[in-house]
What does this fold into?
Amino acid sequence: MRTSTTGRVGQYAALFAYLVFLAFPFLWLVSTAFKSPRELGSLHPTWIPRDPTLDNFRQAFDEQPLLRAAGNSLLAASAAAVIAVLIATPLAYVMARHRTRLAKAATGWVVVSQAFPLVLVIIPLFLVLKNLHLINSLVGLVLVYVVWALPFALWMLVGYVRAVPTDLEEAAAVDGAGRLRTLVSVTAPLLAPGIVATALFAFITAWNEFFFALVLLKTSDKQTLPVVLTHFIGAEGVADLGPLAAAAFLATLPSLIIFAIIQRRITGGMLAGAVKS
It folds into this structure.
């Protein structure tokens, strides 16, 4: 009993330390965003601003087109998430239900493709988009985000599809439903948590992505939010810390809000109530 209690205390202590480790950068970012320039230059920084101010937020919006950049990021990330899920869902169903050699090879390729560094693929992607006249275009950026998110989206959804009992699909087939009808009416509703989690992953990945947007977007009116955030760093590498922290804090809010809204769907039981004994 004593060993079990000690182990549980150790687990909770490790979890608490991990949460502190994850929360520290965000809490420091929020603190920095509300500090005055004088306090930012203090040799004895504090967690809680002594004289909280909104000047950093005003200065951030005055110096850079944050709203336009946020709109570009929102458009690109939302489109990439929707398209990736629409493509990945039927493909994942086929890969999960038909375990042929081709499906196994495709699954292996999905896993291996995640190891490719961005630098390795950026030149071929740039040349392809140049031939399609999609350089400096949000359409081209969305296509890149879809291609980049699709392998992991497939890998996630294959696991969710395999967790759906085949008995439900067989019952639907007995009732006369075809493959497409079964996928849309039976399997897809049970995959809702997995689809939501996959879409969230694709959205956050595209929302935070920097390298592709930096290379493919040339004009300021097309740039996304992560690229615009770099404009708060001067030519000599000196950051305008207050406005940068304020803009970065605002950039993290959409991901946090979306996750807070749909986290119950993600963590809820995928098949709760689907199969009754």
About this structure: The chain is about 75% helix and 0% strand. Residues 2-33 form the longest helix (32 residues). The chain has a mean pLDDT of 81. Residues 1 and 48 are 42 Å apart (CA to CA).
